[in-house]
């Protein structure tokens, strides 16, 4: 079947001013990403802040221009002026539910507006669907008559999720959906997304800097570093047989007393800027296992490790001949 989302060699580059007298440079936010998300599947996209995951999300939503490569939603690439059909196909949940909801609109208006836009002209039908959706996200239908400031952060994120799902999209892009929330309610929101994914068959692109957040809901995980995917695979393989040194450090840095670090090094130093990515393997300045080819060679190509598991690391191809 056609994947819900297919990215082929996607590049999102921005011209950036470097300050007075320094001219301009190209920020290679997304630098050649190919990914598929199947129907009803959850792909966890993980990496540090600045790795390009939000730019990737914005490109999928049509919010930033694509420099090169392809984005196909349901096999369709050219959505042109058909923004309404595109918005019906793919919706987004943002990090901060307070700034993503209009404070002057009631929850009923916030959820009913998109329905009206998408052709549900009958008012009582809209009200019914708003009430049903509010129940699905664990809220009392009375919430429809209230305003965003009357709700807690977790409740507002439930409302934002309801608004994303009410037009029955096939894909929801969630960019750090729990990182602005209290630690104590993060699991509730993650479980809610998981339940809704199973119940509604919607595909999810779950973006987080924290591998622990996507662990329990992802079918597959892709790890991103400085604009590129460095490892991708079935979530169990990522956790039981991580092949890229960066993935291992991300696993080791998940706060979990039940999972000792097992000797892997914590991440060393800051992520370099995507304005001036290191030559060779971009991870080499921070990699405890770097060797000659990592600095002098090219960008590591993907090595297939199993049916649904691949990684970009010279150790996987040249490790034996070191
Ligand atoms: Fe480390 Fe080299 Fe592998 Fe890059 S290619 S992750 S520097 S071992
Ligand atoms: Mg971000």
Describe the protein's topology.
Elements lengths: L4 E13 L6 E14 L4 E5 L6 H8 L7 E6 L9 H7 E4 L3 H4 L6 H11 L5 H14 L16 H13 L5 E5 L7 H18 L2 E6 L2 H5 L4 E6 L2 E7 H6 L4 H8 L39 H5 L5 E5 L2 E4 L1 H5 L4
Parallel strand pairs: 3-7, 3-8, 5-6, 6-7
Antiparallel strand pairs: 1-2, 1-4, 8-9, 9-11, 10-11
Helix pairs in contact: 4-5, 5-6, 6-7
The protein binds iron/sulfur cluster and magnesium ion (MG).
The site of magnesium ion has 3 residues, from loops.
Describe what this molecule looks like in 3D.
With 322 residues, the chain is of the alpha/beta class. The protein has a single domain (5-321), classed as P-loop containing nucleotide triphosphate hydrolases (Rossmann fold), CATH 3.40.50. The chain is built from twelve helices and eleven strands. The strands form two sheets. Strands 5-6-7-3-8-9-11-10 form an eight-stranded mixed beta sheet, sandwiched between helices. A three-stranded antiparallel beta sheet has the order 2-1-4. A hairpin with a 6-residue loop joins strand 1 (5-17) and strand 2. The longest helix is centred in the middle third of the chain and has 18 residues, at 183-200. The chain is globular and about 70 Å long. It starts with a strand and ends with a helix. The mean pLDDT is 91. Bound molecules: iron/sulfur cluster and magnesium ion. Iron/sulfur cluster binds at residues 244-245, 281, 283-284, 287, 289-290, 294, 300, 313-315.
């Amino acid at each position: 079947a056609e994947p819900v989302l297919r990215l082929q060699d996607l590049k999102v580059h921005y011209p950036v001013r470097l300050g007075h007298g320094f001219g301009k440079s190209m920020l290679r936010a997304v630098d050649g990403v190919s990914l598929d998300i199947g129907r009803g599947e959850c792909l966890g996209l993980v990496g540090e802040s600045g790795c390009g995951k939000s730019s990737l999300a914005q490109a999928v939503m049509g919010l930033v221009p694509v420099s090169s490569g392809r984005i196909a939603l349901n096999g369709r690439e050219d959505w042109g002026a058909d923004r309404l059909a595109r918005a019906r196909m793919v919706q987004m949940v943002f990090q901060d539910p307070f700034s993503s909801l209009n404070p002057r609109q009631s929850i009923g208006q916030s959820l009913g507006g998109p329905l009206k836009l998408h052709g549900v002209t009958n008012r009582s039908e809209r009200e019914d669907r708003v009430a049903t959706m509010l129940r699905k996200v664990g809220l009392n239908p009375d919430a429809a008559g209230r305003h965003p400031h009357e709700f807690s952060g977790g409740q507002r994120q439930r409302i934002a999720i309801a608004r994303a799902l009410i037009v029955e999209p096939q894909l929801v892009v969630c960019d750090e959906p729990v990182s602005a929330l209290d630690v104590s309610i993060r699991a509730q929101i993650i479980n809610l997304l998981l339940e809704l994914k199973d119940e509604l068959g919607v595909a999810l692109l779950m973006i987080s800097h924290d591998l622990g957040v996507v662990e329990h809901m992802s079918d597959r995980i892709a790890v991103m570093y400085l604009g590129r995917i460095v490892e991708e695979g079935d979530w169990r393989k990522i956790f039981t047989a991580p092949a890229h040194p960066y993935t291992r450090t991300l696993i080791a840095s998940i706060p979990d007393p039940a999972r000792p670090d097992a000797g892997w090094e914590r991440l060393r130093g800051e992520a370099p800027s995507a304005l001036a990515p290191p030559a060779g393997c971009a991870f080499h300045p921070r990699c405890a296992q770097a060797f000659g080819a990592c600095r002098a060679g090219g960008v590591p190509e993907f090595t297939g490790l199993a049916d649904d598991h691949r990684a970009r690391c010279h150790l996987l191809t040249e490790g034996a001949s070191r």
